[in-house]
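Quick log. Single chain, no ligands specified.
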Amino acid sequence: MDELVSHIPSASMVSKVHFYGAGCMDPFKSKLIQIIKSFFQNAEITAESDLLGAARALCGHAPGIVCILGTGSNSGLYDGEHIINNISPLGFILGDEGSGAVLGRTLIGNLIKGDMPAGLLEEFLDYFGLTLPDIIENVYRKPRPNLFLASLVPFIEQHRQIPQIHDMLVNSFRQFLTRNVLHYGHKEMPVNFVGSIAHIFKTELCESIKAEDFILGEILQRPIRKMAEFHQSEG
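-> predicted structure:
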């Protein structure tokens, strides 16, 4: 550990900081840059959206459609330099199709309403140590219910072979494509993805891409290495 720490440069030695994050836009972006600058006083600071970061990792300077499928979902049309169109994801209540939060929400609804195989609800409750009142508490009364819903994804992954869960996955990804990606009007462009959900459910995502007649580009679980390579190439 000491050897690793010894290779980390001090703040005064850092010349550039590139920050990417969700919701990174003015007026928040300017404030964020000020905060980062207080730690790296000698550095040139840039702060951009996580979607632009994903685009740079996935496409470099080539145009393409970029998507994030994680706890939430997002997408954008990239011209090789900027995100030139973005269909609002709207969050897990109104949108976020294909995200971990929406998959968890759909799973719970289908289980409780009896749209899943017999006994699966009991198995689900036992798996997480939950009761039905616990679910209501986590979704409607506790903060950040999207994180609770996304935390249910491991159960979906372990039961993906069940036809009803397979169909739920494919339908959610197809909704993501038709309600978001289709509106960019560029079916000739590859559709690229970053995020844990895209990585875990690559098989079902590919099936959805084929069903909606899109072209699959690259799927990255974590874009950080490709983002670093992008900036290294920039000098």
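The longest strand covers residues 16-21.
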